[in-house]
Task: inverse folding
């Protein structure tokens, strides 16, 4: 009986010693040994995952009311295309340098070309997989109509959408939206007239 007590004491002392060892900070550049993990790695919720503990069980949280991400500028012309058209000035107007066009093309090719075509030719029948399925074919961006638009009006349609075309503000960030406008102007130049 006595020897059993002694043995369990030895085991407990050994476990305590191990805990003391493993709870000290990282040694040099080597990560700590995590024998008892407890809260060392908290389980992160993945985007789109069900979360029993959050409102509406959404893994992703809605930002608090009246807050904006750092560096974000609220769009002043959301409900007024005419004001956007006349007041928004393209800070990169006429700049067709490669570094600007490359950025514009990257976003145009991924966000717009599926409908408007890689050259802005529009949803020509049988050409682009998405526009092919659409009843209302996405119009060409090389038309006299769009050539006559101000850059601000183009910027507005990318930001807010138009008719059956949804807004692309979330896909084409503010920081590159004028580059996309310039790239459309570049496509128009390429098409001639
Ligand atoms: C899912 C297909 C689709 C995508 C993607 C799309 N558009 Fe559109 N776009 C349309 C359709 C359809 C219209 C016509 C909408 C209407 O007037 O009801 C349109 C209209 C426009 C117009 C106005 C054309 C006119 O003659 O009135 C412009 C400019 C435009 N889109 C630019 C863009 C740009 C730039 C992008 C990428 C950021 C983009 N679109 C992405 C389908 C699309």
Result:
């Amino acid at each position: 009986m006595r020897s059993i007590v002694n043995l369990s004491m030895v085991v407990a002392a050994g476990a305590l010693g191990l805990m003391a060892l493993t709870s000290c900070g990282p040694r040099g550049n080597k990560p700590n040994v995590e024998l008892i993990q407890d809260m060392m790695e908290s389980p992160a919720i993945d985007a789109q995952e069900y979360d029993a503990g959050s409102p509406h069980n959404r893994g992703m949280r809605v930002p608090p009311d009246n807050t904006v991400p750092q560096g974000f500028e609220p769009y002043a012309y959301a409900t007024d295309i005419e004001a956007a058209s006349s007041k928004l000035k393209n800070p990169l107007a006429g700049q067709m340098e490669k570094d600007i066009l490359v950025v514009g093309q990257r976003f145009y090719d991924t966000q717009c070309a599926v409908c408007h075509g890689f050259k802005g030719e529009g949803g020509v029948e049988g050409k682009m997989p998405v526009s092919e399925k659409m009843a209302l074919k996405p119009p060409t961006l090389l038309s006299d109509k769009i050539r006559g638009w101000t850059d601000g009006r183009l910027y507005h349609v990318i930001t807010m959408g138009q008719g059956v075309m949804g807004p692309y503000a979330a896909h084409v960030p503010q920081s590159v939206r004028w580059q996309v406008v310039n790239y459309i102007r570049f496509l128009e130049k390429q098409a001639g007239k």
Q: What stands out?
A: The chain has a mean pLDDT of 87. Residues 111-112, 114-116, 130, 136, 138-139, 141, 143, 145-146, 154, 157-158, 162-165, 168, 172, 180 surround heme C (CB under 6 Å). The radius of gyration is 29 Å.
